[in-house]
Amino acid sequence: MKKVRIGCGSSWSRDRLQPAKELVLNGQLDYICFDAMSEVTMSIAQVARANDTRIPPYDPYLDARMRPILKECVERGVRIITSAGWIDPVAAADKLVEIGKELGIPKLKVAAVSGSVITDRILDLDVDFLEDGKPVKEFRDSIISAEVYMGAEGIVKAIASGADVIVTSRIGDGCPYLAALVHELGWSMDDHHAVAKGMIIGHLMECGSQITGGCFADPGYKDVPNIADLGNPIVEVTDDKIVISILPDKGGIVSQATCQEQLLYEVQDPSTYICPDVIADLTKVRFREIGVNEVEVLIDGAGRPRTPTLKALIGLREGFVAEEMVLFAGPGALQRAEMTKDILEQRLKMAGLDAEEIRWDFVGLNAVHRESTPNMKFEPNEIVLRVAVKTKTRDDALKLGLEVDPLAVTGVYGIGKWGTHSPGTRVRPVVGLNSALVARSEISPKVTMR
């Protein structure tokens, strides 16, 4: 019976670099998949490119992540699938070919899967925001980016073309794993139970070390051995068995509990997990520990046919944010922080700050729980006053730093400043994310070979 072994190389653009090479060298893999996006990735990239066209239109960590493993993957027959293409997968493919030549890899085949970016035609699609029902057209002057979550179809075609590396734009997070399984095990994309199985496997794997103890460890309650050397997961799949594990010499833990937590990660209704290629019922999933750091995944009839629409993420310009932090330590730290808050409130009013929102936090006291913070009567030895303002214009956002910096000589005693850069470098544009549903018929993945 044919088996497919797939490793997770990364769960987002800035994930750790080392685990991927360890998987390639020691994991006996057929595929290694790299998620390189978060929800806001594309919008941030569009803003950055608008300010500086020298910034590449793909994941800036593409070279650092691929160069150490590319030659070994080709030599060992390990295929790479990554969403690092961001705005321009073809440009990312060209970069990978360049890296391949520098490494002396003959005839490296790279496929770019495009089609998710619809910024230039979102206004023509007559869609409404899911959040408030307003027409997207009403925000034409604020739109930075628009892209849909594509499914596995384009990746399956790219694998069938013989590509060593497949690089995509935005796709459903689990789709690289689904595509590999569809190709290798001969599943039909019309078999919604098989597709749901593949998407559930992808969902469990795509966050990498979250299923091996990352974002799970809680000392004394949920202990994770050697978390500093956390291993990334491997899944081995046949038509009748699914097992998730880690390399035997790595830190971490794969257990029923880690799998259950990842199964429910970023899920609203577990019985109706809507993916680009299928609707999956996560209540049909069970886990069974079959060895040390080995968990069998049991999935029974979990699929329903896909929806006629695909989800689109639309990035909007929503003004600017400035953030400042001021440090206090020693006797009276909290009282001095509170006095500084009063000083800044008055001075910002004098400066004519026109803010849509102002937030004050005493970090170490109430920054997380806010109004729900218990009334604990103690005198902190140190405290950080954090203030953030959201404004319509950059000039208004700058006013915060222009009042915080002078506190060094016009505020209370014993004050410390977090960071020494000029106020202009502490202001950033705000990118808001909304979503809409786009007819599936409007989206066609395109495979470009390099």
What does this structure look like?
- This protein has 450 residues and is α+β, with helices and mostly antiparallel strands.
- Helices cover 27% and strands 26% of the residues.
- It has a 10-stranded mixed sheet with strand order 11-12-8-7-1-2-3-6-4-19, with helices on both faces. Strands 5, 14, 15, 16, 17 and 18 form a 6-stranded antiparallel sheet that branches.
- The chain starts with a strand and ends with a strand.
- The mean pLDDT is 95.
What key attributes describe this structure?
450 residues, alpha+beta, 6-stranded antiparallel sheet, 12 helices, 10-stranded mixed sheet
| Contiguous helical run count | 12
Provide the helix percentage: 25-40%
- Structure class: alpha+beta
The overall strand count is 19
Low-confidence stretches: none
The strand line-up of the biggest sheet is 11-12-8-7-1-2-3-6-4-19
Largest sheet descriptor: 10 strands, mixed
Mean pLDDT over the residues: 95
Query: What best-fitting shape do the alpha-carbon axes yield?
Result: globular
Round the Cα radius of gyration to an integer and report it.
Answer: 25 Å
> What separation lies between the terminal Cα atoms?
33 Å
Beta-strand percentage? Answer: 25-35%
